[in-house]
Amino acid sequence: MARILFVSLISRDDKPLYIQSFDTDLEVADETIKTQNANNFLKYNFLSHMALDVFTSPISLSLKEQQQSDGVLLLFIQDDVSVYGLETNNGLKIVVGMGDEEPAMASVKTLFSNIHKRYLRTICNPFSSLGGGNNNDDLLQTASFDQGISQIVSEWALTDV
Question: DSSP labels for 27-54?
């Protein structure tokens, strides 16, 4: 089973909207573990930015042809992290880093679809702006969106056996 290490959402302007690590424990007291967690988060942030380079390069077209895909692509593998990506019709880029085991591509597409649906549900919520003029960037930094993404990742861990 491939373990999800991080999920990131990046705007059409290549601005990171959301990056969440799923292999770090923020509630630890040991300083060396805290340092390792911080290093992992920085690594995942860097891998998300590397994925942007792949999205914008002409190589991405040949990747689509090689993988015979019109959606989710394996962008690269770096430091035992397989980085998959999807660019939606509106320019949103969804990037997911997974452990070293290769998952079934059908389940990866379902994962990306669920993440995209969660994003759309959050952004298109008509009641979200009632609380004081939130913009779309702020909506993704809420506990409910974070819990929704965490739930998708937890369900992935249970179903991808």
Answer: T---HHHHHHHHHHHHHHHHHHHHHHHH
Sign of dihedral through CA atoms 89, 136, 20, 161? negative
Is residue 7 within 8 Å of residue 41, measured between CB atoms? Answer: no
As to burial, measured by CB atoms within 10 angstroms (0-12 exposed, 13-18 middle, 19+ buried), residue 111 is buried
- Spell out the CATH class of 4-159: alpha beta
Q: Is the pLDDT of residue 133 over 60?
A: no
Q: Is residue 62's pLDDT more than 90?
A: no
pLDDT digits (tens, 9 = 90+) for 72-120: 888 899 988 999 999 998 889 999 999 878 888 889 999 999 999 999 9
Greater model confidence, 57 or 155 = 155
Residue 92, token pair as written in the block: 């949103």
Task: Decide if 45 contacts 19 (C-beta within 8 A).
Answer: yes
Domain ranges across the chain: 4-159
**Rounded CA separation 23/12 (Å):** 27
Cβ neighbour number for residue 73 with a 10 Å cutoff: 21
